[in-house]
Amino acid sequence: MRVSRAQAEENRETVINVASRLFRERGFDGIGLKDLMKGAGLTQGGFYKQFSSKEHLAALASSRAMESATRRWSTAAATSSDPLEAVMSFYLSMGHRGEMADGCPLVALGSDAVRQSDEVRHPFEEGVAAHFEVLDELMNEAKSSNPSAKAMTILSLMVGAVTLSRIMGDKSLAEGILDAAAEEVRRIAHREDVV
């Protein structure tokens, strides 16, 4: 049975969204096309009508994941009188630590993205730049063509802290890592000598 153009586009969006979640949960190489399509409720046969390769899908799914993460930061910031604290509250939390499929793609796929093609790495590069921009806005740092050292340090610290906390089986130690990172982010954000 032939699928309408609208249904084909809806199926494509479903596959991208499902791939975004499954790649974050299992890694780029941790899931095959058959299981990706099954997760989207579709058959593998339709894959190549929508995507040129798994790499093409990985690039689209990575872009979707990074856009979602940046939007999540902006949404959290908009709901608080202390936007940086609001972002830290959800990002450096045990809840976010446990969000393997819906959490930060930098944490879930960052080290994996390094080994991928330029097509797959590019959304991560854009996403990192977008996160730097959001952090600079949250700290009211002067606008320039480059991100501030504070933004670079804070993002690195936060991504690293969530990554390390996910490694730890001891939940109290994992929570300690997140709490220590939050304290350090507060300290860095208020320092005048880091620009």
TrEMBL record:
Keyword DNA-binding: yes
InterPro entries noted in UniProt: Homeodomain-like_sf, HTH_TetR, Tet_transcr_reg_TetR-rel_C_sf, TetR_C
A Pfam match: TetR_C_13
Sequence ranges assigned to domain HTH tetR-type in this UniProt record: 9-69
Portion annotated as DNA-binding: 32-51
The keyword Cytoplasm is annotated on this UniProt entry: no
UniProt KW keywords: DNA-binding, Transcription, Transcription regulation
The organism's place on the tree of life at top rank: Bacteria
Name of this chain's protein: TetR/AcrR family transcriptional repressor of nem operon
